[in-house]
Amino acid sequence: MFTAAKLIETAQEAPHGGLLDRLQRHLLRLPTVPVAAHTQAAFEALQRELGPSPGALIFDSGCGTGESTRNLAERHPEAWVVGVDKSADRLGRLRAALPANVRLVRAELGDFWRCAVAAGWRLNAHYLPYPNPWPKARHYKRRWPAHPAFPWLLGLGGDLEVRSNWRLYLEEWHIVLESLGVASTLSPIAPALEAPLSPFEAKYLASGHGCYALRAELGSGGIPAPSWSAYQARCEAPEAFSRPALMALLAALPAETSQRSALEAALTLPSLRKPEGHRGAAASDFFPCDLAPGEWEALRETLEQVLEQRAEGGDDPALTLALRALRSR
Ligand SMILES: C[S@@+](CC[C@H](N)C(=O)[O-])C[C@H]1O[C@@H](n2cnc3c(N)ncnc32)[C@H](O)[C@@H]1O
């Protein structure tokens, strides 16, 4: 028996106000947490099969049972069409034989995109049919445009197509892409003109929902640089130190200073990514440091004591800058 799909329930009436800030935050600092081992292994297995330059390549991200992957593969016999989903259960449901140009992979999408970008893969097309939209406003950070993995999706390039039965979700994609200078169109799916691409689309259309497609050309990919304003704001934030200030701090602080390890850890992570046209070298690198509120105060007190004892030893401009940053907290 057919069970009608529920309409999206949400109290959110407009695109979320935090989206662009999240996007810039992620462009300033790409994820550094290691890729999940199972996704790395799944990507490497696919890479061995498709070879170092797989040629025409299409991703069906969040492919569910893989029916959309099959539909796309039939439309694009010239390309490899790779369906990716984290659910072994869904991936295991498709019984019909798949075209020879389909591969289905069980993996975590964000990590999978990251592996593909790192391997230099670029897509001809990227489909995301009915990704989980996380309709509660407080969950907006889980939506792809606000997700830390979004830069990798951009990095893959290609003709992007995202489908959803929640128009507002696609408007959020539109706003985020527009902020990067990427135009997109948003149009209703016309069931009279095309067969459903995927099971979720079929279910939503049969339940009378409006379904929409957002389309954008991401071109040859590459991860965009952050904006100047986001970069400046982040460098001026009290928890960010320039490389010289951080190194001077580490050199000056007594060995037993408890905040040392957090400062050392900050230096081992990549510095903030710089905006387009930034000419600075390593000396202008900035590193956000992760300390609890009370720790900042303790660090400032330690540094003040160090500087007091050094009063006759002359000023170190990098340390003075570090102290100024600590006092501004
Ligand atoms: C709403 S279903 C849509 C399935 C299919 N695209 C369709 O339209 O019929 C969303 C799918 O995305 C998958 N998914 C969600 N988040 C994922 C993630 N982070 N990594 C991999 N798959 C994910 C889920 O397992 C699920 O199969």
Protein model, in words:
The protein has helices at 19-28, 37-50, 67-75, 88-91, 109-118, 150-156, 167-179, 199-206, 228-236, 243-252, 260-268, 293-309, 317-327; strands at residues 57-61, 80-85, 102-106, 125-129, 159-164, 184-188, 212-217, 240-242, 286-288. The protein has 329 residues and is of the alpha/beta class. It has two domains: 19-217, Vaccinia Virus protein VP39 (Rossmann fold); 228-327, no CATH class. The strands form two sheets. The chain has a seven-stranded mixed sheet with strand order 3-2-1-4-5-7-6, with helices on both faces. Strand 4, helix 6 and strand 5 form a beta-alpha-beta unit. Helix 5 (109-118) packs across helix 6 (150-156). The longest helix has 17 residues, at 293-309. The mean pLDDT is 95. The structure holds S-adenosylmethionine (SAM). S-adenosylmethionine (SAM) binds next to helix 8. S-adenosylmethionine (SAM) is lined by residues 62-64, 68, 85-87, 90, 108-109, 129-132, 198-201.
Structural class: alpha/beta
Mean pLDDT: 95
The number of distinct β-strands equals 9
**Proportion of beta-strand residues:** 5-15%
For the record, the count of structural domains works out to 2
SSE succession: HHEHEHEHEHEHEHEHEHHEHH
What is the first-to-last residue Cα distance?
Answer: 62 Å
Q: Output the radius of gyration.
A: 24 Å
Poorly predicted spans: none
User: Which fold name is given in CATH as the topology of the largest domain?
Assistant: Rossmann fold
In CATH terms, the superfamily of the largest domain is Vaccinia Virus protein VP39
Largest sheet: 7 strands, mixed
Major sheet: order of its strands? 3-2-1-4-5-7-6
Please, how many helices? 13
Name given to the CATH architecture of the largest domain: 3-Layer(aba) Sandwich
Question: What helical percentage do the residues reach?
Answer: 25-40%
Bound molecules: S-adenosylmethionine
